[in-house]
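Record minuted for completeness.

…
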Amino acid sequence: MQAGRTTLTTLITVLAAVAVLPGCGVVAGMTGNRSEVCAEAQQVLTDFGTKLRSLPSTDNAAWGRAATDFATSLDTLSARSDDQELQRTLKDLAGAWRAASPAIGDSGDVAPMTALLRDQPEKLVAACD
Protein backbone atom coordinates (compact mmCIF):
# COMPACT_ATOMS: atom_id res chain seq x y z
CA MET A 1 0.00 0.00 0.00
CA GLN A 2 2.65 2.54 0.98
CA ALA A 3 4.79 1.77 -2.10
CA GLY A 4 1.78 2.51 -4.33
CA ARG A 5 1.15 5.81 -2.61
CA THR A 6 4.84 6.74 -2.78
CA THR A 7 4.67 6.19 -6.52
CA LEU A 8 1.53 8.33 -6.66
CA THR A 9 3.08 11.24 -4.81
CA THR A 10 6.11 11.09 -7.10
CA LEU A 11 3.80 11.07 -10.12
CA ILE A 12 1.85 14.03 -8.75
CA THR A 13 5.06 16.02 -8.24
CA VAL A 14 6.11 15.38 -11.83
CA LEU A 15 2.64 16.21 -13.19
CA ALA A 16 2.47 19.45 -11.25
CA ALA A 17 5.87 20.44 -12.60
CA VAL A 18 4.98 19.76 -16.25
CA ALA A 19 1.30 20.65 -16.24
CA VAL A 20 1.84 24.21 -17.32
CA LEU A 21 -1.41 24.73 -19.09
CA PRO A 22 -0.99 26.34 -22.51
CA GLY A 23 -4.28 28.24 -22.29
CA CYS A 24 -2.83 30.35 -19.51
CA GLY A 25 -0.67 32.25 -21.98
CA VAL A 26 -3.50 33.31 -24.27
CA VAL A 27 -4.17 37.03 -24.42
CA ALA A 28 -6.77 37.83 -21.79
CA GLY A 29 -10.17 38.70 -23.15
CA MET A 30 -9.89 36.62 -26.32
CA THR A 31 -11.03 33.41 -24.64
CA GLY A 32 -13.48 34.64 -22.02
CA ASN A 33 -12.37 33.40 -18.63
CA ARG A 34 -10.65 30.29 -19.98
CA SER A 35 -7.15 31.47 -19.12
CA GLU A 36 -8.19 32.30 -15.57
CA VAL A 37 -9.98 28.97 -15.06
CA CYS A 38 -7.03 27.06 -16.54
CA ALA A 39 -4.61 28.83 -14.20
CA GLU A 40 -6.86 28.02 -11.25
CA ALA A 41 -7.12 24.39 -12.39
CA GLN A 42 -3.34 24.17 -12.43
CA GLN A 43 -3.26 25.55 -8.88
CA VAL A 44 -5.96 23.09 -7.76
CA LEU A 45 -3.90 20.22 -9.22
CA THR A 46 -0.77 21.47 -7.44
CA ASP A 47 -2.66 21.87 -4.16
CA PHE A 48 -4.07 18.35 -4.53
CA GLY A 49 -0.56 16.96 -4.96
CA THR A 50 0.59 18.84 -1.87
CA LYS A 51 -2.38 17.49 0.09
CA LEU A 52 -1.69 13.90 -0.96
CA ARG A 53 1.97 14.16 0.02
CA SER A 54 0.91 15.23 3.51
CA LEU A 55 -1.51 12.35 4.14
CA PRO A 56 -0.51 9.28 6.16
CA SER A 57 -0.21 6.33 3.79
CA THR A 58 -2.39 4.19 6.04
CA ASP A 59 -5.33 6.61 6.33
CA ASN A 60 -7.58 5.39 3.52
CA ALA A 61 -10.47 7.62 4.58
CA ALA A 62 -8.30 10.75 4.32
CA TRP A 63 -7.20 9.73 0.82
CA GLY A 64 -10.83 9.19 -0.18
CA ARG A 65 -11.83 12.59 1.24
CA ALA A 66 -8.96 14.24 -0.63
CA ALA A 67 -10.20 12.71 -3.89
CA THR A 68 -13.76 13.89 -3.18
CA ASP A 69 -12.54 17.39 -2.27
CA PHE A 70 -10.51 17.51 -5.49
CA ALA A 71 -13.63 16.51 -7.45
CA THR A 72 -15.57 19.31 -5.75
CA SER A 73 -12.88 21.83 -6.69
CA LEU A 74 -13.01 20.69 -10.32
CA ASP A 75 -16.83 20.96 -10.29
CA THR A 76 -16.57 24.50 -8.94
CA LEU A 77 -14.17 25.47 -11.72
CA SER A 78 -16.42 23.82 -14.29
CA ALA A 79 -19.37 25.88 -13.13
CA ARG A 80 -17.33 29.08 -13.42
CA SER A 81 -15.98 28.39 -16.90
CA ASP A 82 -17.63 30.12 -19.83
CA ASP A 83 -15.82 27.82 -22.29
CA GLN A 84 -18.02 24.81 -23.05
CA GLU A 85 -15.14 22.43 -23.85
CA LEU A 86 -13.28 23.33 -20.68
CA GLN A 87 -16.48 23.16 -18.67
CA ARG A 88 -17.25 19.66 -19.98
CA THR A 89 -13.67 18.48 -19.42
CA LEU A 90 -13.59 19.71 -15.83
CA LYS A 91 -17.00 18.16 -15.14
CA ASP A 92 -15.84 14.81 -16.59
CA LEU A 93 -12.62 14.90 -14.57
CA ALA A 94 -14.57 15.67 -11.40
CA GLY A 95 -16.96 12.79 -12.08
CA ALA A 96 -14.09 10.37 -12.51
CA TRP A 97 -12.55 11.43 -9.17
CA ARG A 98 -15.90 11.21 -7.44
CA ALA A 99 -16.41 7.69 -8.83
CA ALA A 100 -12.93 6.61 -7.71
CA SER A 101 -13.09 8.03 -4.19
CA PRO A 102 -15.06 5.14 -2.59
CA ALA A 103 -12.46 2.57 -3.69
CA ILE A 104 -9.69 4.83 -2.45
CA GLY A 105 -11.36 5.64 0.86
CA ASP A 106 -12.89 2.27 1.69
CA SER A 107 -10.23 -0.21 0.65
CA GLY A 108 -7.18 1.93 -0.05
CA ASP A 109 -7.21 0.83 -3.69
CA VAL A 110 -4.97 3.38 -5.39
CA ALA A 111 -5.21 1.85 -8.88
CA PRO A 112 -8.03 4.20 -9.95
CA MET A 113 -6.09 7.17 -8.60
CA THR A 114 -2.96 6.13 -10.45
CA ALA A 115 -4.89 5.88 -13.72
CA LEU A 116 -6.56 9.27 -13.20
CA LEU A 117 -3.29 10.99 -12.36
CA ARG A 118 -1.70 9.45 -15.44
CA ASP A 119 -4.50 10.28 -17.91
CA GLN A 120 -6.23 13.43 -16.73
CA PRO A 121 -3.53 16.11 -17.01
CA GLU A 122 -3.33 15.55 -20.76
CA LYS A 123 -7.10 16.07 -21.04
CA LEU A 124 -6.89 19.27 -19.05
CA VAL A 125 -3.98 20.55 -21.12
CA ALA A 126 -5.93 19.82 -24.34
CA ALA A 127 -8.97 21.72 -23.04
CA CYS A 128 -6.80 24.68 -22.05
CA ASP A 129 -4.80 24.76 -25.29
In short: DSSP finds five helices and no strands in the chain. The chain has one domain: 2-128. Residues 2-128 form one domain. Residues 84-107 form the longest helix (24 residues).
